[in-house]
């Protein structure tokens, strides 16, 4: 695995940890909408990043995801 793919894996692990932290908090009904929005935003940005990296790796033929 090349350095770019290793960095990508670290980014995914970090995002997963952040999402887990959101879910481990004591959630009140007042906080629910905010947490839901943060989780959705994080997922969307991470998903777009993953698709971009996959595209770049496939074009360079360096790391199939």
Structure write-up:
The chain has 65 residues and is mainly alpha-helical. Helices cover 83% and strands 0% of the residues. It is elongated.
- How many beta-strand segments? 0
Q: Identify the overall geometry.
A: elongated
| Oligomerization state | single chain
- Please state the CA-atom Rg, rounded to the nearest Å: 15 Å
Structural class estimated from helices and strands: mainly alpha
Write the layout of secondary structure elements.
Blueprint lengths: L2 H22 L4 H32 L5
Summarize the structure.
Helix 1 (3-24) runs antiparallel to helix 2 (29-60). The protein is an all-alpha fold and 65 residues long. The protein has helices spanning 3-24, 29-60.
Question: Can you give keywords for this protein?
Answer:
mainly alpha
